Automatic annotation (TrEMBL):
GO terms for molecular function: 2 iron, 2 sulfur cluster binding; metal ion binding. This is Ferredoxin. Keywords: 2Fe-2S, Electron transport, Iron, Iron-sulfur, Metal-binding, Transport. It comes from the Archaea. Residues 4-91 form the 2Fe-2S ferredoxin-type domain. Belongs to the 2Fe2S plant-type ferredoxin family. It comes from Haloferax mucosum ATCC BAA-1512. Signal peptide: none annotated. Its cofactor is [2Fe-2S] cluster. CDD domains: fer2 (cd00207). InterPro entries: 2Fe-2S_ferredoxin-like_sf (IPR036010), 2Fe-2S_ferredoxin-type (IPR001041), Beta-grasp_dom_sf (IPR012675). It holds the Pfam family Fer2.
Length: 98
């Protein structure tokens, strides 16, 4: 079963994620704190900025097409390569408007 290493650069922790699980599932399994709420790709609480690498997240419909290249919803995202992520970074579409 193929796996990828996902490094959280803000935490200095790495989790191994198989191609049959999401990044969030691997974090919960290994006891790595990752914020989440809905677990269905709607609330964006689990968002992380993609620093390096690629994910697939076709069910992350709350992100714009551009945002899916830059942000991972860890409850939906499955790595397609080794990754570097920064937790707690949110896409511009949820930034409060002034
Ligand atoms: S936990 Fe809500 S979008 Fe991931």
């Amino acid at each position: 079963m193929p796996t990828h290493e996902v490094e959280f650069v803000d935490l200095g922790a790495t989790v191994t994620v198989s191609d049959t699980e999401t990044i969030l599932q691997a974090c919960i399994r290994d006891g790595i704190y990752q914020e989440f709420s809905c677990r269905v790709g709607m609330c964006l609480a689990c968002s992380a900025k993609i620093i390096e690498g690629e994910v697939t997240q076709p069910a992350a419909r709350s992100l714009t097409e551009e945002e899916t290249e830059e942000y991972a919803l860890t409850c939906m995202a499955r790595p397609q390569s080794d990754l570097k992520l920064e937790r707690g970074r949110y896409p511009p579409s949820i930034t409060p408007q002034k």
